[in-house]
Amino acid sequence: MNVFADVSLRVSANSMAVCPVLSVQPTRAMVDEKFQIVVRNLPPKQEVTLHSLHRSEDKDYWEAFGYYISDENGTVTVVEDASRGGTYVGVEPMGLLWSLRPVPGSRHGLRLRKRDVLSPMVVNISVYKGHMTQGFSEKDALATVVTERWYLAPGVQRVEIGKRGVKGTLFIPPGPGPFPAVLDMWGGGGGLVEYRAALLASHGFVAMALQYLGADEEWTSDVETGYFETAYKVLQTHPQVCADRVAVLGLSFGTSVTLTLAAYSKVVQPRCCVCISGSHVHPVNKPLIEVLQVMMQNMTKARIDENNHVVWRDVILPIPTEPDLKVDVGRIKCPMLIVIGQDDQNWATVESTEDIEQMMERAGNRHLLTVLSYPDAGHLIEPPYTPHIRFSNFITQHNREKVLMLWGGQTKPHAHAQEDSWEKILLFLQKHLYQDLPPAAKL
Fold first, then answer.
1. Where are the domains of the chain?
2. Residue 416 annotated in active site
3. Which one is catalytic: 252, 279, 352, 421?
């Protein structure tokens, strides 16, 4: 159900005898909500291009487009009709979002990420006569609709955290609560990333976006396990949170932190964990700064491909057998969901997950583990319809070097992985956090 009041915007041109009508429903929606695009009043069998255009917060332009042919009634229905070419092909209702890419001539190595979750991602959807590949800004569209894609649902509160030395942002769903909660951690890029936590809160969870590494222009904070335990307690003791229904979610290096907390912490006792594109391979029982330093010692295993992209996946290979070089996942006592892409070029997540499964099988807790493994998906598995980024600029934490990091993945299968995994992550969290919750606390 769309949580926004729908507004239909239609702009038509006089370039045809009958003005084409472009409909996008809903025009204002959450980023993980599908829309339906229909073009009417075209001549039968008319070739048209559907085009999307977004200006990022960094003032870069991103576009996607698909080729369609109207039916005998002069209609294109994107949910039913196949794109014949463009940035995506086939019947792909959301192809105009997940295949977004920088327009020709843009800066190299861009990655599209939302910084201000209090404002929408604005995307212009247009229809053009003929099958076009470029020059969209120089042509008049037959019709255009302005759409808004939100990470924050109406009524969700955003609260900055400055408590007990914890850096982060808290997102609280509307309603009386208390609610189950999720501690949300991103990876080695550092900084405070809020958009996934905002979306989780929009689905009924109090979510804390936690900063634990410096941003791109800063050096790494000297953060120890106690920092994460404090953040967990800040979240757990919030009056809007069900104290015994807190999950931990991490992506990339955030997975390393998640697994460490779940296996060793006496303070952090998560109801369940979600680990995306990460590994259990890192020195245990050391401050985070030392963990990163040890891992960087293996950077000689990193390689540069033919496109001058940095490939990190070999850094932790072969998976070590020494117990002090990887988290003892056999100690984990809560349900755990692992999400990986089989074309992850940044980290050896496939090999790591196989070892995790074997370790948990030997320890007798394999029944707690669910694995989602996606062919041809890369490292950056994000909320659905986020554009696939195969490589992008990245500043390394150990020497502040700017490189082009290869994340991996192919656009269409990666888009499928994002859509499918997000739905299953939400179901996993709902099952383990909302199950048997008193009705008064449910949405």
1. 21-150, 157-441
2. no
3. 252
| Residue 284 pLDDT | 84
- Residue from 188, 193, 222 nearest 310 by CA: 188
pLDDT at 190: 81
CA dist 433 to 153, 178, 352, 409, 426, Å? 20, 12, 27, 31, 10
From the number of C-beta atoms within 10 Å of its C-beta (0-12, 13-18, 19+), residue 416 rates as middle
Q: Residues 81, 184, 343, 344: which is the catalytic one? A: 344
Q: How much of the chain, in percent, has pLDDT values that exceed 90?
A: 80
Give the pLDDT of residue 178. 95
Q: How confident is the model at residue 336 (pLDDT cuts 50, 70, 90)?
A: very high
Give the containing element (helix H, strand E) for 171.
strand 167-172
DSSP, residue by residue, 10-79: --B-SSSSS--EEEEE-SEEETTS--EEEEESPPTT-EEEEEEEEE-TTS-EEEEEEEEE--TTS-EETT
pTM of the full structure: 0.92
Tokens of 418: 């994002």
State whether residue 420 is helix, strand or coil.
helix
**Residues β-bridged to residue 208:** 170, 183
Question: Residue 84 and residue 167: Cα distance in Å, rounded?
Answer: 48
Q: How confident is the model at residue 434 (pLDDT cuts 50, 70, 90)?
A: very high
CA dist 70 → 60, 84, 217 (Å): 32, 12, 50
The yes-or-no answer on residue 54 being catalytic is no
Catalytic residue among 54, 282, 309, 379: 379
Tokens encoding 75: 């209609």
Q: Which CATH superfamily is domain 21-150 in?
A: Acyl-CoA thioester hydrolase/BAAT N-terminal domain (2.60.40.2240)
Burial class of 166 by CB neighbour count within 10 A (0 to 12, 13 to 18, 19+): buried
Q: Return the amino acid letter for 163.
A: K
Question: 379 catalytic, yes or no?
Answer: yes
**Residues 48 and 70 sit within 8 Å (Cβ to Cβ):** yes
Fold of 157-441: Rossmann fold (3.40.50)
Per-residue model confidence as pLDDT tens digits over 147-165: 999 999 999 999 999 878 8
Rounded Cα–Cα distance for residues 34 and 405 (Å) = 30
